[in-house]
Amino acid sequence: MNTPNNGIISQPSEYSVTATIDRLKAVLQAKSITIFAQIDQQAEAEKVGLTLRPTQLLLFGKPERRSWWQNRRSLWIYP
Length: 79
Fold this sequence. Notes:
The protein is of the alpha+beta class. The protein is built from two helices and two strands. It is globular and about 40 Å long. The two termini are 26 Å apart.
């Protein structure tokens, strides 16, 4: 199924970025969902002299299930 948002759900949080990521990780771990990577994009930006608001990327999934990614051969580039 191809939806306008490509299946990605965007949900505002009343918590800080760090608290939101920690809460999400706890839920994922409780459901035995694998966390593949956590990238602090703000810290990475600072390494090259750039300023970025608090931003983190959390990659997670269930490898044993057929993946949404298997049907997509794309590269996502964000400005």
